[in-house]
Structure formats: structure tokens, C-alpha cells
Amino acid sequence: MASNNLSGKPIIAVIFYSTYGHIGALAESVIKGAEATGAIVKPYFVQETLPKEVLEKMYAGGSLTPKYPIATPDALKEADGIIIGAPTRYGRVPAQVSALFDATGGLWAAGALTGKFVSMFTSAAGQHSGHESTVITTFPFFAHHGLVYVPIGYSEPAVGGIDAVQGGSPYGASTVAAGDGHLQPSAVDLKIAEHQGNYFSKFVATFVRGKTVA
Known about the structure:
Largest sheet: 6 strands, parallel
Helix content: 25-40%
Shape: globular
Radius of gyration: 16 Å
Structural class: alpha/beta
Number of strands: 6
Order of helices and strands: EHEHHEHHEHHEEH
């Protein structure tokens, strides 16, 4: 179901969760790429579900003071396109993101997300971890809501790079964080993320413009 957006500009919700900052860094590039198209970009952070004491033991905690508003089901409902960013937890999204998904039952019952567009970016500890599986294992959520996934394919040649350790796949941007998280997104990773935000927003804009023709 389309939003009530009559501006002619796509509303792009960038909804992400970041434990150690890797996804946060990719998100900023995704936002930059989306904004460059003239889209109305609305960033949101997924609510942290772990207590402060646990996060401190994990040497984390930045997720308790997010830069952007907390995502709610309404954030998905008002958007024409949704870009979800989440780290890999055993080849799937973490519990924090699943909690947001679980709160969308009302949207499902109303068919409120049917026909909207979605894309995804992620991070993983190694080169052969969840760069693709995290997206694939989220497809049931997309399918049940009738969301249309928009992959980037190899529209950015850097996706196919093999000369250095990097993330990125035909499904979307990603980064290699290492098991202890000491690696940060590379320039190539950020380039792919910016491209994804740009490519996705232009794709959704075509649909939004089409609605205004009639």
C-alpha cells in the first residue's frame, strides 16, 4: 500500500541498528546517497533491548544514545521505500531488529506495507559470514508484508572487487568487522553503501513519479 505522499519526492526511511558503530557508519553513507537524489530521507534507529549492564560487559553502549529517533511501525508505514541496516547474528538479524518486526502485526493485518520497496545492508565478522544470508533470512518478513526487495546487483562495479578485504554483495552493502570488531568500513564499503542509498532512492522515485502522472 502506497503512502499518502503527494510531494512527488520519495520518502525513504533508513532504519538501522548498530552495536559497535559499523552499521552506523554504513548508514551515514546510505543516507548521503539517498539525500543526493532529492528524496525525503528519514533516518531511524532500532530500539536497544539489552540493558546497560550487559552492553558495558560487551564494551558497547552507544546504542543507548542514538543520533536519530527510535523506529516504530509507523516509520515503515509512512515511507515509500525502506532501507534496513542490521549486523549479522548467526546469519540473521539480531533480536533488536526482530523485536521491531514483531511489532508490525497491525501493519500486516491492514496490508499497510504491501507494494512498498525495501533494501538492506549489513555487517559480519568475516568475509564468509552473513553478508548474504542475513538478507536472505529476512526475506520471509518481506514476503509476508508484500514488500518488494530491490537488490543493487553489480550496478556498482566495486561490488565485484577482489583486491582487498571488503564487503558488499548483489543484495546490498556490507562490511567485514572482524570477530573482535576492530575493523571499520573501508572506503570501498562506504562507496557501495552510498551507491545503494542513491540507487534505491532513484528506483523508488520512478514509482512515486508514476503515481502522480494520472
